[in-house]
Amino acid sequence: MSGKVPPPLADGSANRLAPPVGPPAPDVAHSVVHRVRYGRYVSVALILVVLALIVRAFAVGKIDWPVVGEFLFSSLMLWGIVNTIVLTACAMVLGILLGLAAALMGNSDNPVLRGTAAGYIFVFRALPALLQLLIWYNLALIFPVIWIPGIVEVATTKVITPFVGALLAFGILQGAYTSEVIRSGLLSVGKGQLDAARSIGMTQAQALRRIILPQAMRVIVPPIGNETIGMVKFTSLASVIQYKEIIYGAQAVYYANGRVIELLIVAAFWYSVVVAILTYVQSHIERHYNRSQAPVAVQEAA
Amino acid sequence: MPDIVRIRGVSKWFGQFEALRDVSLNIAEGEVVCIIGPSGSGKSTLLRCINNLERIDGGLIEVGEEIIGYRLAGGRLHELPDRLQARQRSRIGMVFQQFNLFPHKTVVENIIEGPLVVRGMSREQALAEGQRLLERVGLAAKAASYPGQLSGGQQQRVAIARALAMNPSLVLFDEPTSALDPELVGEVLEVMREMARSNLTMVVVTHEIAFAREAADRIVFMDHGRVVECGPAEELLARPSHPRTREFLAAVRK
């Protein structure tokens, strides 16, 4: 390329405006040579080596893989998955309901409601999950009998089964965390939306249900999705109070046959499956709540 | 014409700040009243008090036959429950400076939301009326769009259609063109002029003096939470009697 003489103008006359000498203008016709990314090749090589070492370690290590296969679909494990999912779902539903109630109370202009919400959130976030689980499960030591005059009178131990104990512990704990998520979601919706909803004659409840909450969902759903995935793993603590979830199933088997690592690998496999499915579901739900924010071209094509 | 709005000795405090002091104003049925004044003079607050988006601290506002937010019984004012306050608001339309359209709903869903949820209208009827209102504001083709896909002027026209969908006897406009790019102001004012001709009662807080002169029956000038003066549009603009009004008009005409 000639850097010395500027290219002639379209009509063939010399281009006198461009400087006659100086750095050459880039010529689009030239092919481009990218610099070599050595760092990339090095890191790929390193990662492949480490991966190969890990795979080899598991292959030659003292893991009896046929045993893993043997118990992968054993009925104790399959029931464990079902119980894990049931507890996760129930605890999240309870947590979201309590969280919504606490969030609405926290945003209220009634100081009694605000204080109650703040106290609830403080207490249940302050204590470790395992401690709360043990307290709920041992409720009978505080109140031997659950007694509502004229309606029920039963022994507490009959009511607080491992499932109920775990549900109360995780649901109430989750509510304390979820209320903060929901509260920030509600605050993310502009004040003008409530004004507009009230101006067309909606009551506070109608405005909340039809205008505010659907918009708050965009902010609320991603963290709740994460917390649901967290809850799947939290439920493993319930094995401590004999709730028959995945870990409990694995332990029940390895106490009998001594194959500890093999059964823990089975448990790890099933937790990954459940979490993978939930991650997929979460991405779909997020897309649903984002639809009015989609780019113009996509919307018009739809 | 009988008065549709009677504001009597209204005061409103935000903490230590007196936003409205002893404001009294009557508005006749079918009248178009523009409220002008410097920012912070209480214009928007007065508007928000008329449909009870803000609670007043003293005085009384009547719209039609009803006292806003209260019921008179046994010589005392009893605060109305949420449901009845909402019903009073449903008969008063409001158009906001920032449009406040519902971004998660399409244009036509924005308009039929009130008729469906508040008035309990059937979906077909609400859709038919919604389409008719969209034609009236010149946006029939945008029914299925989302607010985020429209220009500011189009959004404000949708917001006007949403207010009209409740079939209000009175429509309040809170600086409806202040958030718009200059070239989009005209289309919104055009829709408002058409509404003014249709014998709707309108109260418009605005900085558009030209619009006020042409469309308003009366202009109210407010300053420091008070009504300073009030009179027929031409007269108030041509011969303001109060020095504060003269000062303000001179400033905005510059």
Rg of chain A (C-alpha, Å): 31 Å
CATH uppermost class of chain A: Mainly Alpha
Radius of gyration of chain B in whole Å, from Cα?
18 Å
Helix content of chain B: 25-40%
How are the strands ordered across the major sheet of chain B? 8-9-10-3-11-12
Query: Residue-averaged pLDDT of chain B, rounded?
Result: 94
**Strands across the major sheet of chain A, in which order?**
1-2
- What does the main sheet of chain B amount to? 6 strands, mixed
Largest interface: A-B, 22 and 34 residues
Q: What do we call the CATH homologous superfamily of chain A? A: MetI-like
Written overview of the protein:
The complex is a heterodimer of chains A (302) and B (254). Chain A is an all-alpha fold. Chain A has one domain (74-291): MetI-like fold (Orthogonal Bundle). Chain A contains 13 helices and two strands, in the order ααααααββααααααα. Chain A has a two-stranded antiparallel sheet. In chain A, a hairpin with a 3-residue loop joins strand 1 and strand 2. In chain A, helix 2 (65-72) crosses helix 12 and helix 3 (75-106) runs antiparallel to helix 10 (204-234). The longest helix of chain A has 32 residues, at 75-106. The two termini of chain A are 49 Å apart. The relative contact order of chain A is 0.11. Chain B is of the alpha/beta class. Chain B has a domain at 92-167. Chain B has helices at 43-50, 82-90, 107-117, 123-136, 152-164, 182-197, 209-215, 233-238, 243-253, and strands at residues 3-14, 17-28, 32-36, 58-63, 66-67, 70-73, 76-79, 92-95, 170-174, 201-205, 218-223, 226-232. In chain B, the strands form three sheets. Chain B has a six-stranded mixed sheet with strand order 8-9-10-3-11-12, with helices on both faces. A four-stranded antiparallel sheet of chain B has the order 2-1-4-5, covered by helices on one side. In chain B, a hairpin with a 2-residue loop joins strand 4 and strand 5 (66-67). In chain B, helix 3 (107-117) runs parallel beside helix 5, helix 4 (123-136) crosses helix 5 and helix 5 (152-164) runs parallel beside helix 6 (182-197). Chain B is globular and about 50 Å long. Chain B starts with a strand and ends with a helix. Chain A binds chain B through residues 190, 192-193, 195-204, 206, 210-211, 214-215, 292-293, 296, 299, and chain B through 51, 53, 82-83, 86-87, 89-94, 96, 98, 100-105, 113-114, 117-119, 145-146, 148-149, 159, 162-163, 165-166.
